[in-house]
Amino acid sequence: MCRSVLEEAIKQKIPTTLSRLVRTRYRNAATLGNLLHEVNNNLILTGIDPDFPRVANQVNDAGKKAVHQGLLSEDEARACLQDARKALQLLLSS
Hints:
It is a single chain. By secondary structure, this protein is mainly alpha-helical. It has one domain. Helices cover 78% and strands 0% of the residues. It contains 6 helices and no strands. It starts with a helix and ends with a helix.
């Protein structure tokens, strides 16, 4: 859930030119990891806070762990939610 929220927020925040590139490059199926790669490589163009990719990557890592290794612990889930909140704050304040 946290990854999906960040994916949609990034798609809404990035400039139109980058959005077109992402849709074409990833065939309308960009994952959070793909989007973070593009944001990180285009920080000046996007105007997104430089701390955002680091925090958002923590959310992505927790999501990958949950998908590939099983359920997260309560503490891991709480940390993921807190990281997602911080990432959204950084993204939306940019």
